[in-house]
């Protein structure tokens, strides 16, 4: 399985950026996303930036990867790794919610 990893831009030179995620550093090709600034977050896959992320998107992805790592190491705790889901009801995606609402009106 291949995953894109969020990485933060440290330095830019043309369409190449030096990025880091934790202790990991990588030169990243920016051809698909264009110019970025130091501090920006990128979704990086096989050495190329695929998307510019908001800081919140990057944090959400890093949290999901930490939960996956914990599950693989037998340390998963839903109260820690799914804390954002503990106090809310499940929600349907908008296209399914519209379908559900339409069906409910027919009964």
TrEMBL record:
Pfam families: HupF_HypC
Gene Ontology molecular functions: carbon dioxide binding; iron ion binding
Gene Ontology terms describing biological process: protein maturation
InterPro entries assigned: Hydgase_assmbl_chp_CS (IPR019812), Hydrogenase_HupF/HypC (IPR001109)
Family named by the database record: Belongs to the HupF/HypC family.
The protein's name: HypC/HybG/HupF family hydrogenase formation chaperone
Gene designation: hypC
